[in-house]
Amino acid sequence: MSEMQEMTFSDVAEHSSKKDLFIVVHDKIYDATQFVDEHPGGEEVLLDVGGQDATEAFEDVGHSDEARQILDGMEKAKLKRVPGDPEPHDSAPKQTSSSTPSSGGDGSSGLMFYALVLLGGGVAFGAYKYLQTKSAGENK
To answer: If we measure between CA atoms, which residue out of 22, 29, 94, 36 comes closest to residue 60?
Structure first.
């Protein structure tokens, strides 16, 4: 197979209309023209990032593995960076699988939330049982 062609940001910027739409995600250029009408989030989502680096927008949504496969099928070229281009987005592709718990970072705040909910539930249950036994003792 031949080597993937390279395009610059200025080349990509020329493709920002509904009938000719390129986006950049993780320094790869994708031709999203055929997908505009099929995008589950609506065409406006793609048109807003057309001809630009859409890495942050793509990752913030947390796309599924299926969406990533569809994106791979639209790959057109590699991004050739030149002086004056925007800085690359460092965000790595987010994992959609929850098979491995994350340690630290955002995962620990979610764990803390569930721990507080459990603790609150335990305190509420204890208070309920205490009041129930106290009420039963007064009725004797």
So the answer is: 94
Backbone angles phi, psi at 139, to 5 degrees: -80, -10
CA distance 82 to 75: 20
1: pLDDT strictly greater than 50: no
Q: What is the pLDDT of residues 47-87, one digit of tens each?
A: 999 999 999 989 888 888 998 999 999 999 999 888 877 77
Structure tokens at 107: 């995962």
